[in-house]
Specification:
It contains no helices and 22 strands. The protein is an all-beta fold and 255 residues long. 36% of the residues are buried.
Length: 255
């Protein structure tokens, strides 16, 4: 990265995206400069197609000679997309430390060329350089990850017939979709394993009955034996690039 002081200070950075990004590589450092803490307001950010999502990064750097500045703070995606901070605020808690809070906005609203693409989903990294007064530095590249995932939705669970005879067959259906950042719409999520869960009437917890795989349109369909009255629902555990989802349940009585 090697930005150094000439790159400009952390204050007043603009909310814009730019290319190309430097491929992620290991952190580098000189002397006793270090980032003593890095905190994300959210470790996973699920981004849909409508509302922009916010994440805050709080970075504290320290050096015996004092920190001159923290430079080039940004989030970098797996496809080398860069998001610069939309807000920043820095303080000096002690003579040897600097603490900065950066706000980032993530969206796919298709209003400009640099919005999220499907290839952007996965592990992002916060990158920045802390420069000390004695020319020491710490170049943060690969050790501050955050997950940015495509938002997933499950349609309301449908179980029929209602009511059903004890020991009778229930057909349970649903649909799993996720945000398509390339087109800014929700589309069926194919070939995904989704848990069908059941909670007995009067119970407080769901138990997984079976796993069902979505078809090419993201649709779910299976049959189960109705031995008890209760509520059926679908639950998706998510993946490295797609968020979790839980459907509203459908209560079924016995006759």
């Amino acid at each position: 990265m090697r930005i150094r002081a000439a790159a400009g200070a952390a204050f007043g950075t603009l909310a814009l995206l730019s290319f190309p990004a430097t491929p992620a590589h290991a952190d580098t450092a000189k002397g006793d400069t270090a980032f003593t803490s890095l905190d994300f307001s959210r470790t996973t950010v699920n981004v849909g197609t409508g509302t922009a999502q916010k994440v805050t990064v709080t970075a504290t750097a320290k050096d015996g000679s004092g920190i001159k500045g923290i430079y080039g703070p940004k989030l970098v995606s797996p496809d080398d997309r860069i998001v610069h901070a939309s807000s920043s605020s820095c303080t000096r808690p002690t003579s040897t430390t600097m603490k900065c809070v950066y706000g980032y906005t993530l969206d796919s609203d298709r209003t400009d060329y640099y919005d999220l693409r499907n290839s952007s989903a996965g592990t992002w990294h916060f990158t920045a350089e802390a420069a000390a007064n004695d020319t020491d530095f710490y170049d943060l590249e690969d050790s501050a990850p955050v997950r940015v995932k495509r938002y997933a939705k499950l349609s309301n669970t449908q179980a029929s017939p209602e009511p059903v005879a004890r020991g009778g067959t229930l057909t349970v259906t649903g649909t799993l979709t996720r945000a398509n950042w390339d087109t800014n719409v929700y589309a069926g999520h194919a070939s995904q394993s989704v848990a069908l869960q059941f909670k007995k009437s009067g119970g407080s917890t769901y138990s997984t009955v079976k796993h069902v795989t979505t078809d090419n349109s993201g649709k779910l369909r299976t049959t189960v034996t109705a031995n008890s009255a209760g509520t059926w629902r679908w639950k998706f555990a998510g993946t490295g690039t797609t968020g979790t989802a839980t459907a509203y349940g459908d209560g079924v009585a016995l006759k």
